[in-house]
Amino acid sequence: MQKLPDLPHMFNRLLSLPSVSATDPALDTGNKAVIEQLAQWCETLGFKVTLQPLGHNKMNLWAELGSGPGGLLLAGHADTVPFDEGRWNKNPLAMTEKDGKWYGLGATDMKGFFALVLSALSDMDLTNLKAPLRIAATADEETSMDGARKLAEANPFQPALTLVGEPTELKPIGRHKGHISAGIRITGKSGHSSDPGAGLNAMELMHGVLGDLIVLKHELAERYCDHHFAVPHPTLNLGHIHGGDNANRICGCCDLHIDMRPLPGMSIPELEGLLKDKLANVEKAHPGVLHWQHLHDPCPSFVSPDGPWKSEVSNFLGLPVESANYATEAPFFASLGSEVLVLGPGSIRQAHQPDEYMEMAQFKPAMALVQNMVKRLCLT
Questions:
Q1: Could you give the C-alpha distances from 23 to 27, 67, 181, in angstroms and in order?
Q2: How many degrees, rounded to 5, is the angle at CA 56 between CA 53 and CA 62?
Q3: Are the CB atoms for 231 and 220 separated by under 8 Å?
Q4: Which of 43, 58, 229, 336 has the fewest Cβ atoms within 10 angstroms?
Q5: Which residues are identified as catalytic?
Q6: If we measure between CA atoms, which residue out of 295, 296, 289, 298 comes closest to residue 185?
Q7: pLDDT tier at 327 (50, 70, 90 boundaries)?
Q8: pLDDT band at 55, cuts 50/70/90?
Q9: Average pLDDT in the 227-249 region?
Q10: Mean pLDDT across the chain, nearest whole number?
Q11: What are phi and psi of 135, to 5 degrees?
Q12: What is the pLDDT of residue 273?
């Protein structure tokens, strides 16, 4: 009978396959190679594999042992953020072991999770399942979360519990904020800098927008509060700005990208309304110069429904269910009708960083968690 490669081989192999998700098409590689490798390994373990094409060299995977409702779903994303190799001291596309850590792009966020899951399952007898066991891997979590959205639309199964293996240091997360990314563009009128009245300086108008958004940032902190979170209020981040093309030319166009994180209970339209109100000052003074749009579809906030499995995971780990300031695919998996926890090895502090790594000390407890939940949900 064919066997899976060992853990270091699988870890290294997944890291070596580029799967960058980026809004810039020049950087985006798609995740197809990673999905095809995961499919092969899942089939080796006896799983029935379904691939969901998403176009542009991208796809989702779900692999199933057994059928019907209930059981366990182990889920995550197969893409990574872009990387600047010049900022890495290790090879980002290979596993490097040093000082009790495995380095590489996706080591913790979150290709390493799949390697640990498959290694844990390869040590188990899965021939007499009482309820189905499933694995899901998605595309574009790092940008649009389109993979998880499309999987949820397909609604292929209804697990009893889903573990989304984001890097939480094996602390269960049952609540997180939403995410909105918006692009704001001001189109003025360019002209020679020696005659300011001959143009309309988009950068100067954007200065007013920045001031209004900073006011909104403080208003959000004053008006809304949820002490479940380390940062208990909604946040607004001014993340990227670009305008103009030359010092002696009136700036004709200026772009700003912002990030907003709503609390559970705040609707996306509510936050959009607050944003539009703050942008109205420039629009009233200069009709037609301001345009804004979502950079990608918003991600809703998430609160896991109460249920017996969430409590059992918490008891097994000896840890309370916590909250996270970041967003994940959890709300889309929750739409399948299951209890959902965000829970995986590695630290979010390593995500999106040069020389990303996962500590080897996380391996055994992560694999023990997977094996325990498989036994509880699928074998007994």
A1: 8, 36, 12
A2: 25
A3: no
A4: 43
A5: 79, 141
A6: 289
A7: very high
A8: confident
A9: 95
A10: 96
A11: -125, 135
A12: 93
Residues 367 and 123: their CA atoms lie apart, in Å, by 10
Confidence bin at 1 (pLDDT 50/70/90): low
Tokens 């000082």 found at: 99
Burial 231-240 (b: 16+ CB within 10 A, else e): eebbbbeeee
Delimiting residues of CATH 3.40.630.10 domain(s) in the chain? 7-176+300-379
Helices (H) and strands (E) in the chain, counts: 9, 16
Cβ atoms of 309 and 375 within 8 Å: the answer is no
Determine the Cα–Cα distance for residues 263 and 353; give it in Å rounded to an integer. 26
Residue pair 309/161 in contact by the 8 Å Cβ criterion: yes
Distance CA 134, CA 37 (A): 16
Name the segment(s) of the chain with CATH classification 3.30.70.360.
184-294
The tokens describing 25, both together, are 């098409």
Place of tokens 């950087």: 27
pTM: 0.92
26, pLDDT greater than 70 = yes
Question: Quick one: 7-176+300-379 is in which CATH superfamily?
Answer: Zn peptidases (3.40.630.10)
pLDDT of 188 > 90? The answer is: yes
- pLDDT value, residue 226: 95
R_g of the chain, CA atoms, integer Å: 23
Q: Which of 9, 5, 13, 7 is nearest to 33 (CA)?
A: 13
CATH among 3.40.50.2020, 3.40.50.720, 3.30.70.360, 3.30.420.40 for 184-294: 3.30.70.360
